[in-house]
Amino acid sequence: MRLNLPLLLTFGRVAVIPVVLALFYVDWPYARQAATILYAAACITDWLDGYLARRWKQTTKFGAFLDPVADKLLVAVCLVMLLRDAFLTDTPTSLLGVLVSVIIGREITISALREWMAELGARTSVAVSWVGKWKTAFQMTAIGMMIWQIPTFGVPWYDLGYWLLFVAAALTIWSMVIYLRAAWPMMRESSEV
């Protein structure tokens, strides 16, 4: 495996996950804000590594595998961390638990679907759509706002992030339906064989 900058950025996104997790739970002043800044940097690399890999023609099979894994790990760990925090602080968690389940459940389903479609040689049938890109943007923004938590300049970041997570969950379901519809002909054909 040959290392290049896009691949190093992806590795960096994976490496930052335990640091964000640790900062979220330590009782230091501004630790959550530091966690948010690291989280935001990781989110930016989600776009940057793919852009650079395509622009510099440095795409690799390993990078194509690791990039979505890094994204899903970052999102899943942060969502579980936020859910646990809400539970420990007696914040109502029922709806947050549903949102987290929808988002993580979709990620698992689509990852499995992509793997299966790749085995059939039809991975491009479930390529990322614009709905999936919007879902990612809303999801990452919402999570960042919720990690920050402390109202700043009168802006209730956590509450705004919480409501944006509803938008992200709706886009999550919509994008999953798009992927499943695209894969349905292959799924139906496979079940008839």
TrEMBL record:
The signal peptide here is none
Could you cite one Gene Ontology molecular function of this protein? CDP-diacylglycerol-glycerol-3-phosphate 3-phosphatidyltransferase activity
Q: Which UniProt keywords apply?
A: Lipid biosynthesis, Lipid metabolism, Membrane, Phospholipid biosynthesis, Phospholipid metabolism, Transferase, Transmembrane, Transmembrane helix
User: Which PROSITE patterns does the record match to this protein?
Assistant: CDP_ALCOHOL_P_TRANSF
Q: In which pathway does it act?
A: Phospholipid metabolism; phosphatidylglycerol biosynthesis; phosphatidylglycerol from CDP-diacylglycerol: step 1/2
Give the primary localization class. Answer: membrane
Entry EC no(s): 2.7.8.5
Where can this protein be found?
Answer: Membrane
Mention any Pfam family matching this sequence.
CDP-OH_P_transf
- Top enzyme class of this protein? transferase
Catalysed reaction equations from the record: a CDP-1,2-diacyl-sn-glycerol + sn-glycerol 3-phosphate = a 1,2-diacyl-sn-glycero-3-phospho-(1'-sn-glycero-3'-phosphate) + CMP + H(+)
Q: How does it sit in the membrane?
A: Multi-pass membrane protein
Segments passing through the bilayer: 7-26, 134-154, 160-180
Q: Name one GO biological process term.
A: glycerophospholipid biosynthetic process
Record-level GO cellular component terms: plasma membrane
What family does this chain come from, according to its entry? Belongs to the CDP-alcohol phosphatidyltransferase class-I family.
Protein name per UniProt: CDP-diacylglycerol--glycerol-3-phosphate 3-phosphatidyltransferase
Which species is this record about?
Solimonas aquatica
The lineage is: Bacteria, Pseudomonadati, Pseudomonadota, Gammaproteobacteria, Nevskiales
